[in-house]
Specification:
This protein is mainly beta. The protein contains 4 helices and 12 strands, in the order αβββββαβααββββββ. It has one domain: Pnp Oxidase, Chain A. A 7-stranded antiparallel β-sheet has the order 3-2-6-9-10-5-4. The protein has a 3-stranded antiparallel β-sheet with strand order 1-11-12, with no helix packed on it. Strand 11 and strand 12 form a beta hairpin. The longest helix is centred in the first third of the chain and has 8 residues. InterPro entries: Flavin_Rdtase-like_dom, NADH-dep_flavin_reductase, Split_barrel_FMN-bd.
């Protein structure tokens, strides 16, 4: 238990009941492409356009993230559950299929089939508890959502992936 907090297992159990959108963060690492799933994505500010997400200090991607100048955040649709699972597995498997991704002219890997993603430059990193909070300035938006029927977003809830249903 933390100095004034509840036990970690109690906190984890409660947070499992809060649905979160699923994103994949990708960046160019010193030894090749790096990527990981992140359900902690947030839009922070419109002026300037800032985003944030957290990465665990135990993540295999933490060293690359701490050294990165820029990154891409992919917003996953319901059709991309297998991609989310791939980027939650062992780091060596994430980019093992070259048909799944390409590299932007700025060097970051970008995943095919993701109609909405943003590129950001890293502005701040804060060590907070057992995670690092990363704040980025959005410098590019790729929005291909208007050219095809928009897939429902992929959500993570109670330890599993789910399809969001529209509220009309």
């Amino acid at each position: 238990m933390g100095s004034d907090g509840i036990p970690a297992d109690q906190y984890r159990s409660a947070m499992r009941h809060y649905p979160a959108g699923v994103t994949i963060v990708t960046l160019a690492g010193a030894d090749g492409p790096v990527g990981f799933t992140a359900t902690s994505f947030a839009s922070l500010s419109l002026e300037p356009p800032l985003i944030s997400f957290n990465i665990a200090h135990t993540s295999s991607s933490i060293a690359a993230m701490l050294g990165a100048d820029s990154l891409v955040v992919h917003f996953l649709g319901e059709h991309q559950q297998e991609l989310a699972r791939r980027f939650s597995r062992e780091a060596g498997q994430r980019f093992s299929e070259p048909d799944l991704w390409t590299t932007l002219e700025t060097g970051e890997p970008v995943l095919h089939g993701t109609p909405l993603w943003v590129r950001a430059t890293v502005r701040e990193r804060f060590a907070v508890g057992d995670h690092t909070l990363v704040v980025g300035l959005v410098t590019r938006v790729h929005d291909d959502t208007g050219s095809a029927p928009l897939a429902a977003p992929l959500l993570y809830y109670n330890g599993a992936y789910h399809r969001a249903t529209a509220l009309d």
